[in-house]
Write a structure and sequence with these properties.
- The chain contains six helices and three strands.
- With 158 residues, it is mostly helical.
- Strands 1-3-2 form a three-stranded antiparallel beta sheet.
- α4 crosses α5.
- The protein starts with 35 loop residues before the first helix and ends in a 7-residue tail after the last helix.
- 13% of the residues are buried.
Length: 158
C-alpha cells in the first residue's frame, strides 16, 4: 500500500504495457497517461526535465518509505506522515494546517508499518501535547514546526 501525493508518479508501465499496479483515488485526482512508446519517441510535448525531476521526487519519497521502519520511531513516522500530507495540501493551495484525511487510521497504520493501536496512541499523545487537534478524520496541525522537528529527530520536550 502506498499513498501518492500530488505531483508524484503513481506507476510506470513496462514496455509491454502490462502493469502490476492498482490504484484507488481517495480524493479528487488528475491522471496523465504517458505511453512508453511516447517516452521513447522523445515527444516534444513532454517536458523531459520536469518528468525527470518528478521521478526524482518520487524516488526520494519511496526511499523515505523504505527506510522509515528501520530508522524512525513510531512518533517520527506519524509526524512524517502528517507533515507530508500537510505539504501536499499546501502544494494544492489548500490549508496545510486544517484538513480531512481521506484514509482510515488502519490504512495509515499499514502504510507506516505500525499497529493500529500505536497510531491511535501517538495521535492521542500529539493531541495531549498540543501539536494537533483531531476529530474522526479532521485534523488541525497546531504546531507544524514542532512536527517538522520531530521528523528530523530533534529532541522535543512535550
Amino acid at each position: 500500500m502506498a499513498f501518492t501525493w500530488q505531483g508524484m508518479s503513481l506507476a510506470w508501465m513496462r514496455p509491454d504495457n502490462v502493469s502490476r499496479s492498482m490504484a484507488v483515488a481517495l480524493d479528487t485526482s488528475r491522471v496523465t497517461l504517458l505511453p512508453f512508446n511516447t517516452l521513447l519517441a522523445g515527444n516534444e510535448k513532454i517536458n523531459a526535465q520536469e518528468l525527470i525531476r518528478k521521478m526524482g521526487q518520487t524516488l526520494n519519497h519511496d526511499n523515505d518509505l523504505i527506510m522509515m521502519p528501520s530508522q524512525r520511531t513510531a512518533e517520527r513516522r506519524l509526524a512524517w506522515f502528517l507533515v507530508e500530507f500537510s505539504d501536499s495540501m499546501a502544494r494544492r493551495r489548500m490549508s496545510p494546517t486544517e484538513f480531512s484525511l481521506p484514509m482510515s487510521r488502519t490504512d495509515i497504520a499499514v502504510f507506516l508499518g505500525l499497529a493500529l493501536e500505536t497510531v491511535c496512541r501517538e495521535l492521542a499523545r500529539f493531541s495531549d501535547s498540543g501539536l494537533i487537534k483531531k476529530g474522526h478524520r479532521k485534523f488541525s496541525l497546531l504546531n507544524l514546526e514542532t512536527l517538522r522537528h520531530l521528523v528530523n529527530g530533534d529532541e522535543i520536550h512535550h
